[in-house]
Amino acid sequence: MKSFTVPTFAQVSPTNQAMFENLKKGLGMVPNLYATLAYSENALGSYLTLQNAKSSINGKAREVVNLVVSQVNSCEYCLAAHTVIGGMVGFTAAQLLEIRGGSATFDTKLDALAKLTKNIAVNRGHADAAVVDAFFAAGWTNENLVDTIVTIGDKTITNYLHGVTKVPVDFPAAPKL
């Protein structure tokens, strides 16, 4: 397989260079996986638009989805990045490991979200009716269901990108489950 390297600032288009500058301002760096998207004239901008779109799945809930999907897809890059982000939004190390396993027994609503997310990801979009019913019984709405599915799609994109390119992980490695 061709070895993928991360493109440098000089190797990407002026449009992507401007996005690199914005990422550096906001994150202090351009994560390697984002830089890899910049091989395409359009992919980085399209992905950032998707990732930054308004959603009813935010904060801790979004990190639950990100961690569960990344675990199902065995994406070491996204697991590393979202373990860091999950800690920043207030999850403990033990909670992060539990979430990656597909549950969150410390919070009934997040537990239903984690279980639904895992069920959807494992079954490639075909959720068990009982898991969907439990999601709604925990207080989630139709809007939340749709936004959860969009968030699963968002994370699947980067999971697949890393799975194919194997660009270097530039976050501390996530602990093994």
Distance between the termini: 28 Å
- Poorly predicted regions: none
Beta strands, count? 0
How helix-rich are the residues, as a percent range?
Answer: 55-70%
Largest sheet: none
Radius of gyration, in Å, reads 16 Å
Provide a count of the helices: 9
Molecular structure report:
The structure is a single chain. This protein has helices spanning 14-27, 32-37, 43-51, 59-72, 76-88, 93-100, 108-122, 129-137, 142-165. The protein has 177 residues and is mainly α. Helix 4 packs antiparallel against helix 5. It is built from 9 helices and no strands.
Outline:
With 177 residues, the chain is mostly helical.
List the helices and strands and how they pair.
Layout: H1 14-27, H2 32-37, H3 43-51, H4 59-72, H5 76-88, H6 93-100, H7 108-122, H8 129-137, H9 142-165
List keywords for this structure.
177 residues; mainly alpha
